[in-house]
Amino acid sequence: MKLFSLILGLFWGVSVTTTVLAGDHIGVTEITVASPERGRNLSVTIWYPAAEGGQEILLAESKLFEGTKAFRDAPTAAGRYPLIIVSHGSGGRIQDMGWIASRLVDAGFIVAGPNHPGTTSRDSTPADTPKLWERTNDLSNVVNTLTSTGQWSGSIVKERIGVLGFSLGGAAAMELSGARANLETYAQYCDVNKTMSDCAWYVGGKGYVDGEEVHSDTVNLREIDRARFEQSNLDPRIKSAVLVDPAMAQAYDAESLKKIAIPMYFINLGRIESVPVAVTAQKLSELTPKGNLVHINDAVHFSFLAECRNGGTELLKSIGETDALCDDGGGRSRADIHAELGRVIVEAFTRTLKSGE
Question: What is the four-CA torsion angle of 253, 228, 140, 167, rounded to 10 degrees?
């Protein structure tokens, strides 16, 4: 579950002006959203259809990853658009979701998401990881702010809101859609699957705070606040969900899945026989009444990350990183995998939030 937390912390850089193709009308801005529950503000990135203007940048370009072209603080294009809320993976950053956000904006959506304190790059600990109720509250707070105040409320179709989640973000999206987790079931899963990335993270003995590696006590899952872990985090404003390799796949209560009323589009990265048990979504898709499952062949979990720059694999080796963040599962390039993922995700939200499925 550390999932590139330190790597992104080492290499993420500032946005720079540049000239590249595509994305000519994608605006991006960053705002803060109050979180009374956390006692701090959330850092939120918003991508949106833009009119001419703004500073041309490559958002989230780093030594390791390619950035995404957009126009910082460009005027919002006239019109009203469905909203997609995005939740990043464990140890990730919302800014690095620009590659999929830009495709959704091109299709006529506004896209927004927070960096989740305690499970984001440079700020990620095992103790914070299973607290999905904090992540779902972050997402609902973003919806509250964008649909009720400032310039965004007039640009968003409030009745057409979707959620896109990757990995731990997929678990948050599951719960925002109505899934409820069972603590003992999850603990038993880790009893049996100690080498799975999430289970190993809980006993790994380290985390990241303020960009520095720190010692972390082993997390005993059975000592987590059970009432909070198993509570309903349903947000009825969410009308459609796309869930990419959703974490905690073995933890959800079957009866809660059967009651989910919205379309649920599950995506597993890789062929069915190669998907780790931690994120396999076949049973989830079968239990949800409007569930669909797509496998992206020759992809792996890390394929949802941004494209790596030339020399990325060598760079990782030079610092002793063992996770193959730049490697995919077969002969396809990450760009080709992203093209397929983009089509699947855009089609799902277009069908459910624009066509009224």
Answer: -60
| pLDDT tens per residue, range 275-327 | 999 999 999 999 999 999 999 999 999 999 999 999 998 999 888 777 889 99
> Can you tell me whether residue 117 is helix, strand or coil?
coil
Per-residue tokens: 287: 């239990």
Query: CB–CB of 341/296 below 8 Å?
Result: yes
| Residue burial 289-300, b: 16+ Cβ < 10 Å; e: rest | eebebbbbebbb
Query: Could you give the CA distance from residue 67 to residue 194 in angstroms, rounded to a whole number?
Result: 35
Q: Which token pair is 320?
A: 């002793």
pLDDT above 70 as % of the chain: 93
pTM for the model: 0.92
Burial 69-97 (b: 16+ CB within 10 A, else e): bbbbebebbeeebbbbbbbbbbbbbbbbb
335's tokens:
């760009």
Given a contact cutoff of 8 angstroms between Cβ atoms, the answer to whether 273 and 248 are in contact is: no
**Closest by Cα among 262, 226, 259, 270 to 241:** 262
- Count Cα neighbours of 149 within 13 Å in the Cβ-side half-sphere: 9
CA distances from 41 to 35, 149, 196 (A): 5, 16, 32
